[in-house]
Amino acid sequence: MLEIIIATKNKGKIREFQDMVGGEYLVQSLLERPFPDIDETGSTFEENAVLKAEAVSKAWDVPTIADDSGLEIDTLHGQPGIFSARYAGPEKDDTKNIEKVLKELQGVPFEKRDARFVCVIAAAVAGNTYTFRGTCEGKIALEPNGDNGFGYDPIFYLPEKGRTMAELTSDEKNHISHRYHAMHQLKLHWKEIFK
Ligand SMILES: O=c1nc[nH]c2c1ncn2[C@H]1C[C@H](O)[C@@H](COP(=O)(O)OP(=O)(O)OP(=O)(O)O)O1
Ligand SMILES: [Mg+2]
After folding, report:
1. Which residue among 47, 121, 139, 189 is least enclosed by CB atoms within 10 Å?
2. Which residues bind Mg(2+) (predicted)?
3. Which CATH class is domain 2-193?
């Protein structure tokens, strides 16, 4: 079976990639293929995704995809953006990150709470690297709801669904998410990249 590495230890991402890529490929993550933490020193999602994908593909010599993603909030001028994982501190605590967002948005009315999830996937294969971007538009809810998914899902409200991302089934999320849209772009180019 062909192998592909998903260059992350984030269990939420791993689950979603396994659902989206699994089947034809043996999908491995950095839980099975250990790798030291990679400093995300880039200033864009693209730069960080490339850093992660190239470091891991060089070390293991296996086709690798990496995901750099985050939440952009309009009234915060796009913050936390590439700093989403460590917004409330270095421990990458989802609950604390959510609390910080809700605090920053205290008193901001619903119509001014527009936000989007952004996902950039970098694919590093045989010395070449490609990036694909996907987004998902929504609103920051007034309080958390639901316990599916990960990260900021409990406060990411989807007006057309009438629910937060964390209230969707994984199957529903995997058909509308920023990660799905980035993955869809990658799949359109899959044969050229993974030949
Ligand atoms: O579907 C999502 N639903 C909710 N929240 C999400 C999602 N996608 C990204 N996010 C948030 C989580 C984290 O706060 C940040 C990603 O940060 P990011 O650096 O890409 O990931 P990470 O450090 O957890 O793992 P790694 O870099 O090893 O892949 O954005
Ligand atoms: Mg990270």
Report:
1. 189
2. 39, 68
3. alpha beta
